[in-house]
Amino acid sequence: MTRALIIGGGVAGTITAIALHEAGHEPVVFEAYTHDSEGVGAFLTLAVNGLDALLPLGLKDVVRSAGFDSPRMSIGLGNGTRLAEFPLGGALPDGTVSQTVLRSDLYVALRDEAARRGIRVEYGKRLIGANQTNTHVTADFSDGSHADGDLLIGADGLRSRVRTIIDPDAPSPRYVPLLNTGGFAEGLDLPDKPGVLNMVFGKRVFFCHVVSTDGRVWWFANPARKTEPTAAELITLAGEKLRAELLHLVARDRTPAAEIIRATREIYPAWPTYDFPTVPVWHRGRMVIIGDAAHATSPAAGQGASMAIEDAVTLGKCLRDVPDIERALSTYESLRRERVEAVVAAGKRNGEQKVIGPVGRVVRDFFIKRAFAKPSDEDPNAFMWNHRIDWNEKVAV
What we know:
Elements: E1 3-7, H1 11-22, E2 26-31, E3 43-46, H2 48-54, H3 60-64, E4 68-69, E5 72-77, E6 82-87, E7 99-102, H4 103-116, E8 120-123, E9 127-132, E10 137-141, E11 146-149, E12 151-154, H5 161-166, E13 174-185, E14 196-201, E15 206-211, E16 217-222, H6 231-236, H7 239-250, H8 257-262, E17 271-275, E18 283-284, E19 287-289, H9 292-295, H10 304-321, H11 325-352, H12 358-373, H13 382-385
Parallel strand pairs: 1-2, 1-12, 2-8, 5-14, 12-19
Antiparallel strand pairs: 3-7, 4-7, 5-6, 9-10, 10-11, 13-16, 13-17, 14-15, 15-16, 18-19
Helix pairs in contact: 1-4, 1-10, 2-10, 10-11
């Protein structure tokens, strides 16, 4: 039995722990925060490829219980034109479709399931360093404690400490010139079907809303910012100042965006968008990175959580089927790198449609309308959600 030290107790780390436990190993999760992440974070849509990867781990229904079905997407323009409505990523054979879920609720569902399976999680463990030999790894934490294991897995996100331990020359995240914000509006009676993601390329800002099964309106917006904002600038752009800016950005759009923003009690503080075009080194010896630590993608891909899930399941399979740890980690990278870099590139392309000036907007809207007037037989994004992982198939080295 392999003892795996998993750095990071978010979605990626928790699912990795469950996958390794299912594969017969002993995972231990180390979370930097002194408490769990209940109540923290916005919402996300989990694509069917991520849900399918959860099935053999017994987690698909756990995740579905935390969210609501999002089977379709509507695309429109700021002038009020609705161009098309179509399935969002297809469906699994049992009828399962994409799920929209609060990140916090997803985390809680996974945390509780990990606890039910007896997986140990330690809080207040911020990694500061790690050393390895030919036979084991030692992790050092800021509280002066240490942990020994057979391998170390960095599921510690965009600012991963494990990534820089593995490769001190690792690149920094690339700023994508968009901010993210959003919230939940109450007391509205919109004519939209519940679960349909209504995405609008507005005259000044990209805006999306979805009516949940309880009647609240979940929404997000992507204000463009050419230069990366500092932490101080983000602090000042919050609360009513952020609400006023968003209302200004949607004022010229003939959509319910302004009504939704006004009906939102608390708007999420804005945060920047980042991605990684490529991270040259994913593993060294007995240490490896997964999820956002290895390949953060723009939210425009709609695949961040699903990529982390696919990573976790693939890594679990490799460590189950390949007896040598270093070879297992190399096999994991060979199975994942090409796919995730293609997803990151697709997210970048999708996001670029949101960062356009007035002249570019006219051209963009023209081509969007033409694209939906004569849709292609092949969806360029289909490769993302059509991907499937067979847990029972033995990994070929």
